[in-house]
Amino acid sequence: MTQSEPMKILFCSDGSTQAENAIRFGALIAAACHAETSILGIVEKTGQTEPVSQGLRRAQEILEQNHLHAELITRTGRPVPEIIKRTRETKYSLVVIGATRKGLRGPFCMSARAYKIIESVEPPVLVVIGERTALRRILLCTSGTTQADATVQFAGEIARRVNASVDLLHVLAGPPAVYASLIRSEEDVARLLQSDSKLGRGLRRQQELLANMGIPCDIRLHHGLVLDELFDELRRADYDLVVSGSSPVHDRLRAYIMGNITRQIVDRAELPVLVVRGGLSAKTG
Fold it and tell me: pTM of the prediction?
């Protein structure tokens, strides 16, 4: 998509309360980006037509309250294949879905449909968990590599439009005790950014990318296990959105490794999660 093209957002609704939460949160982005919006409702079983139609009308009202005119689309069939089909028929900048937990225990409590959509569609996916009414602060997980630049750029464009700040989070692997002093020096953000190390150059480049967009950005360096440190950071500050990258689907090994981390973020997070596929060159228009 070129800079002159408008952002296109596909909202997916099953008429549930969580779908409405997703539409309200996604509307914050859509309104700020002056996006073209579509609402896809899917009738999966006999007798669901009226509830789905009512859900679509409520969703349309929510978007109209944000001065957005939405195209209503109704399909019959299984939700995941219909969403995949729609994203292949029309090029969207973002897909927004609501997700609820199946229970309080087990390794994966989120609906399997949410994972399947994230893994299968090309556009970034915003998974709205819980209820958020503002988007002021974003936590962006980054490897500091060039592969993460597209995720930084996409999330940065959203932050610029909604006037949000961004914290870049990088987690250093746990070292043997003999290297403790070296790690302490690496955890000094200013020293790391001034260094000529690969990580220092990458984080500096991504911080400058956000700065050039006019986005306030801090770098958070943690030391330990990625997921533990990520959720420690989420508990430390009041974030409204966490952003994670995902490997290209054709790279089976990387998709498995990165996909597992992303899946656990979605599974454990208590706030919306934006997943951007690695190698994406998307812009918000």
Answer: 0.86
